[in-house]
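Changelog excerpt

This revision adds worked examples to the README so contributors can see how folded entries look when concatenated. The first example is reproduced verbatim below.
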Amino acid sequence: MLSKSQIKYIQSLGQKKFRDEQGVFIAEGSKIVFELLTSQRAKITHLYGLKEWIEENKQHCYGINTEEITAGELKKISQLSTPRDVLVVVKKIKWHEEIAAPGRITLVLDGIQDPGNMGTIIRIADWFGITQIVCSRECADIYNPKVVQATMGSIARVRTEYTSLPDWLKKNNRFKIVATALEGRPVNTIKKMKEGIVVIGNESRGINPEIMALCNEKITVPRLGGAESLNAAVACGIILSHLTGNE
């Protein structure tokens, strides 16, 4: 049985302040928990699961502080409207190598504030083999439970760093920097990129003018219908599908 202090502690990890203080985050559901259990980077400190889940997956829980809980207890500690059998507390992921632009595509996010979009973009980056993302400090926290859930485990494979985008782009201005914009060149006319920087802007206001001024080229997803704009994650997926891979 979970104590009141345990419940309060796990609930507190829904807030950035406490995640930062403790250096941990939470993840829920079998799919993402299995991803983290098999990751060499993710370090799970505690696992809380329903009896049936633990019995079926005890071979995966070896060496992990595991506690059986009831459905009622899971509901109390879950950040989801419909709890999913298992919840883990995980140490924030440490990356020893620095983000470097040469020889790869780097995704840059300017003010992506919606947690669902943020997590989905990380997952999309992982799908297209992009292993590093540079974010403005206005972006959603990658350890927000909604972001973590939307990544579906990609959070352990894609390094994400928060920094001053103008400073970072100026340091890497020898590389091609393309920005997504409504008035840009159609992305299906652009050659594949082996290295370079792709900038995705805020869901409503787009890319900050200071950031846009540092970009070499504007690209867009051609509009054929009447929709005013595309969701940031959807646009990111379409653009990366054109820019990555072989000719």
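The second example, added in the same revision:
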Amino acid sequence: MPEASAYARGVPCWIDLSCTDINASKEFYTALFGWEYFVGPPETGHYTQALLGGKSVAGLMQQAPDQADAPVAWTTYLKADDADTTHKAIVEHGGQAMTEVIDVMGEGKMIIAADPTGGVFGVWEPGRHIGARVVNEPGSWIWNELSTPNAPRARDFYSAVFGLEIGDPMPDFDYTTIKAEGRDVGGIFTVPDAQPEWRVYFAVADTDATTAIADSNGATVVSQPKDTPFGRMAVIQDPQGAVFALMSAPQS
């Protein structure tokens, strides 16, 4: 399978799951995507990388006992050329830097932040770890999009902080892509009165079959499989509460 070697500024480059029972999460996502795992040493908090064909696709981390109120969720990380400069820009443009810049033992530098509409995201400045080595393949993630009550404000923020371009809006629907170097890399759209959320979409060969596997392994099917112009999609909530989407290529 093709291997990613670098990401442009502002492109989603990594995802990870914060969960309450990492062993149960590993079993669930292996059943869905066939993942194997590399478990980090104690000094990393046993941060775990999910592997597909031996290549990294995502991270998983066990919440600490004092994080009982933290949400179980997938986080999307956007690539930064300079984490310190990005930290300042987040604040200057109305966002909230929820952490300082964290140096992850030479692997890279990270920030957890919220945009001005409340959408939580991560920032990653690559070191040894560039991000996911496999994307857009079955069993890896294929798309990331932000739903928010104030999409225009969010677009202004991500454009200013990460230099992302904004695509043309869809007819009759406040949805635009975000672009890096002229290529669509994600989406932002309005959902009135909704809690802002960056959602991760995973590529699968068969959305219906994977939805059935998720259901039989204790997940909740939030949205049943349906055909869209972009492929057949479903929305799943894993047994611990993290919401994500599945997408298979449209039938030719």
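Reviewer comment on example two: The longest helix spans residues 22-33. The chain has one domain: 1-252.
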